[in-house]
């Protein structure tokens, strides 16, 4: 039996431990929390509480402190060293997380700070579970010199090693400048909060000194800039609470790792539900615009989907949704923006999304209504050939189930690129009004019959006659089906039920690529 003296010693030690942990929770400066809240920002631990299931967080290395000396650092050794690391659950599934604590050294990364992040990243990879980073830091800790920079190198190396193995999500909740911005760029998804988060390689002061341009931090690298102009951010929200709730929703759609299938749910939306609204959503006139998101809402479960890069390259819609409970990735041309053409940005957006879905066993549904690639000197000079080839490469390389549906027109090389049967689509479908051809009948007639039209007494009447002739011969809706390039021409109202059956049939698809270290996709 333990003596009263030894029991008291144990209790004293436990009290001391509790005091240390309380200090780690509160931080070295009580006013720092008030300053964080005054900026409209939550603390690292408050963010983790919103992200994870209540009471599920397990913290590691809470009592870690740096060993650096010089520049006054030896007198400032706060617990956690400015980053909170650990794991918890989201809807009962394990998720690893690290969160910069801006109250300590402004969230700047030092050697100990980086080592903690390295450890949690290694644990996520080993456990095969998603990694979420809550970023709110001032970059490398200048006082620690190259040791801090080397810490970023370790993070980048692990980001790359984890790519395509576990989902990686970066949530930008404060500043992220210099080399620190490359870690989010290496992850699968980037979330940003308006007004409080910024990302840039060189800040406004450096930009002004070098180029003479004056710009604010938000104007240079704010949420809307990266969500709509640069394409760095996939999602942008007005507040942290909404942002973190959407991160939870995204995680509910993703598998834990590349060896698992995405989580399937019980679907209350009838598989055989008819989409009568589809008859009116898509105009028969190929020149009239419409919002393809209405089509997506009609065919996916309960009309719910999560659009990725909603404001960047809006002429192509990429979204995650469910079909009969199965998670699917939807890629769709958007006639409401630039007539749905493929351009440089849309090609890169689609390629990245297709590659992600293929990495994590998410079937692809492609809704096609594309008039071609965007013509123009800028497009050609900026590399539409090699950059458009990214989307082609991504589709050709994908081994997940692939189903394409031609809603209306599908012309030229853009038809081929949008997951046509010839590049490996498992199921190729079309609606009755489809026009699959090298180009539209009007343009084709002008080329093929230019001599007859020029020699005619009434060139315009001859041109209309030749357009009808070309359309009847080569652009009618059943031309591709007759040649086996379309598996079936379906009633638009049955699109949902056909897709549900196709996804279910292909759920056990097993396809391997040739053995190789890796491909060399166009850059």
**CATH architecture classification name of the largest domain:** Alpha-Beta Complex
Distance between the termini: 72 Å
Would you tell me which CATH topology of the largest domain applies? 2-enoyl-CoA Hydratase, Chain A, domain 1
Which strand-content bin applies to the residues?
15-25%
CATH class of the largest domain: Alpha Beta
Low-pLDDT runs: none
* Tally of individual domains: 3
The outline comes out as: elongated
Number of helices: 21
Descriptive overview:
- With 523 residues, the chain is of the alpha/beta class.
- It folds into three domains: 4-253, Alpha-Beta Complex (2-enoyl-CoA Hydratase, Chain A, domain 1); 277-434 and 477-506, Alpha-Beta Complex (2-enoyl-CoA Hydratase, Chain A, domain 1); 439-476, no CATH class.
- It has helices at residues 4-26, 30-38, 44-51, 111-127, 146-162, 182-186, 204-211, 217-221, 223-230, 240-253, 278-281, 293-299, 344-359, 377-381, 384-397, 412-417, 441-448, 450-455, 459-474, 479-482, 495-506, and strands spanning 58-60, 83-90, 93-100, 131-135, 168-172, 175-177, 189-193, 198-200, 235-237, 305-308, 316-323, 326-333, 364-370, 402-411, 427-430, 435-437, 488-489.
- Strands 10, 11, 12, 13, 14, 15, 16 and 17 form an eight-stranded mixed β-sheet that branches.
- α13 links the parallel β12 and β13.
- The termini are far apart.
- One of its GO terms (molecular function) is transferase activity.
- Keywords: Transferase.
- Pfam families: Carboxyl_trans.
């Amino acid at each position: 039996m333990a003596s009263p003296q030894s029991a008291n010693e144990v209790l004293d030690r436990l009290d001391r431990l509790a005091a240390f942990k309380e200090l780690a929770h509160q931080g070295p400066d009580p006013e720092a929390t008030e300053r964080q809240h005054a900026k409209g920002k939550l603390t690292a631990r408050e963010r983790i509480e919103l992200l994870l299931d209540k009471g599920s967080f397990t913290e590691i290395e809470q009592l870690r402190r740096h060993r650096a000396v010089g520049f006054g650092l030896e007198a400032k050794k706060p617990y956690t060293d400015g980053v909170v690391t650990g794991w918890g659950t989201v809807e009962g599934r394990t998720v690893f997380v690290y969160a910069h604590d801006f109250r300590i050294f402004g969230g700047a990364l030092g050697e100990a700070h980086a080592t903690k992040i390295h450890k949690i990243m290694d644990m996520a990879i080993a456990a095969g579970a998603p990694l979420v980073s809550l970023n709110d830091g001032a970059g490398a800790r200048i006082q620690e010199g190259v040791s801090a920079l080397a810490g970023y190198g370790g993070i980048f190396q692990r980001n790359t090693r984890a790519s395509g193995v576990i989902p990686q999500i970066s949530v930008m909740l404060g500043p992220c400048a210099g080399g620190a911005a490359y870690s989010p760029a290496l992850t699968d998804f980037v979330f940003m909060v308006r007004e409080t988060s910024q990302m840039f390689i060189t800040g406004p002061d450096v930009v002004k000194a070098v180029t003479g341009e004056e710009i604010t931090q938000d104007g240079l690298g704010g949420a809307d800039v990266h969500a709509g102009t640069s394409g760095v951010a996939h999602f942008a929200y007005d507040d942290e609470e909404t942002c973190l709730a959407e991160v939870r929703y995204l995680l509910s759609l993703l598998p834990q790792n590349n060896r698992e299938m995405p989580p399937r749910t019980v679907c209350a939306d009838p598989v055989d539900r008819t989409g009568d609204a589809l008859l009116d959503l898509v105009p028969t006139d190929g020149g009239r615009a419409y919002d393809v998101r209405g089509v997506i809402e009609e065919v996916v479960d309960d009309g719910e989907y999560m659009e990725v890069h909603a404001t960047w390259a809006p002429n192509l819609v990429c979204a995650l949704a469910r079909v009969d409970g199965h998670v699917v990735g939807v890629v769709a041309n958007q006639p409401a923006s630039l007539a749905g053409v493929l351009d440089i940005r849309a090609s890169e957006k689609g390629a990245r999304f297709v590659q992600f879905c293929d990495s994590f066993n998410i079937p692809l549904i492609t809704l096609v209504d594309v008039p071609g690639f965007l013509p123009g000197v800028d497009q050609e000079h900026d590399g539409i050939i090699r950059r458009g080839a990214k989307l082609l490469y991504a589709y050709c390389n994908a081994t997940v189930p692939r189903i394409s549906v031609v809603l209306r027109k599908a012309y030229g090389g853009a038809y081929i690129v949008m997951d046509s049967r010839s590049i490996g689509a498992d199921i190729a479908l079309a609606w009755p009004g489809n026009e699959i051809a090298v180009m539209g009948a009007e343009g084709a007639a002008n080329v093929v019959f230019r001599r007859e039209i020029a020699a005619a007494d009434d060139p315009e009447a001859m041109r209309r006659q030749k357009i009808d002739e070309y359309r009847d011969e080569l652009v009618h809706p059943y031309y591709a089906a007759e040649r086996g390039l379309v598996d079936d021409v379906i009633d638009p109202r049955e699109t949902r039920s056909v897709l549900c059956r196709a996804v279910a049939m292909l759920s056990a698809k097993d396809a391997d690529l040739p053995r190789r270290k890796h491909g060399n996709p166009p850059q």
